Amino acid sequence: FLERMSLSFQGAPPLLPTVALLFLLAAPSSDAFLQIPSVHPSLSASPAINVLGRASSRGLAAGIRRGVPSRLRMSAEEVDYVVVGGGISGMATAHFLEKAGHKVILAEATEALGGNIITRSEEGFTWEDGPNTFQPGDAILDFLSAMGLESQLVSSNPKLPRFVYYDGAMFSLPSGGGPPKDLLKLLTPLGLARAAVGALLPTGVKSEDESIAQFFDRTLGPEVLEKLVDPFISTVYSGDPSKLSFKSVFPAIHKVAGDAGGFGGLVGSFIRGRIAAKKGPQAARTSSATLPKGSSGSLQGGLAAIPAAAAGALGDVRTSWKGVSLAKKGDGEGYVTTFSTPSGDKTVHSKGVAIATDPPAAALLLKAVAPSADAIATAVTAPPVWAVTFAYPCSAFREDIPCVADGRLAGFGVLIPRACKIETLGFQFISSLFPARAPPGQESLLAYIGGAQNPSVKDLTAEQVMSKVDADARRVLLKPDAPPPTVLSCLLWPHAIPQYNRGHAAATDKIRAELPDGVVMASSFAGGGIALGDCVTRAKQCAEQLQR
Description:
- The chain is an alpha/beta fold.
- It contains 17 helices and 22 strands.
- The strands form six sheets. The chain has a seven-stranded mixed sheet. The protein has a five-stranded parallel sheet with strand order 10-3-2-14-22, sandwiched between helices.
């Protein structure tokens, strides 16, 4: 969420922006707010409560219900590559392989592509139950253009302010090049001085797998950690900064910190890195698709347009094909992948396989070719998170808070540090980002509750969760006499975000080193970022690796 804020401090005194340096350095490792992973979770989401509280039988979304395989016969066919898993990672990997001229089968266990991309529309509202926006980087824009979606691109206003709620007050964070005025109010003079000094002093990186909390506590200080880093981590990654690996979650900052042992510390290293990046070679674009820098991207009608387009754009898509085993061919040249399908077990011979599934499915498939594959289940954890979409009349919002202007929500959203003892992680203002997604006179919001620091939410009912979120909204955003909300969706993701905890990189690197040539892990749990854009970038790298 905060990485999406396009913090820019040109013209500001050099010490003022240092407390926000992490947001400048970290792009692009997340898309927006909390990012539900883009491959199927190991357990499907619970049924949603939708508009006016009616129970929804759609579960995850129409079109991804489980098929009922039978075991009537075994058949085999030959292709160049097999991609297992039809989320964004699998779709993109198949695209890059097909683009290089290869014959590819994309196999998806459910009845439709898309993974956790779930767009819903009802009674004038449109919302996402899974990934909700993307950061408009070159890789994902080029991919969407290749899927024929360039004309459907939409974006938020990049100048929309972002907010942090702390100690009963709301503070706007710098965006669109604006000055960091509220940042000076959010941090105490001592906290600001500590951050400024820490950003300028030599820093370096620890030899061990340092946690996010450890790094920011020793560099920018405990106040920045509590008021800025913790709410960012708990919302975007649904994580615990004392457990998440600094180098895995913030590889860009880790790289900068590694060069920050000399003059200027983090600030000096950041400046040197930006100068070097401008002088270095730029990646070639394959489209002219563009969105405003600092905005949040989406598509007309929602992100479900991506799998819908991919189903037609990709050459050979097999749905209701669940991967059950992977083995080397008897002659050692290539692989045999077995699938359970509605018409019986099927086998496919190929020279390479990309695994783009959730951790349990990946462990099952890889165990015959990588001895440590069983460790995936313990190396990759994913805490439960409730995604709640709801709406109030515009008149329900307080007019004395900075995120309301002219009677409407005016901002990207608000983060809530865990120190505030408020269970809701934050609120994203959907109707402010994309005004067409709520009917006139209504404001729609997306809230998250749960994560690594509050896993017990998995035992709550949807009604209990909605009651908590409504109470928190009344504390932070609403007038005392605000009416009850219109509940659009209240959905539990039992295993929401893969956690890049300390030790995660070592475990996945070990598995990766054991993989034979011709097998790659393209899933978000394997590292490299959880955002949609990260998934596309990793898919391109995996496709290139398979072709070497």
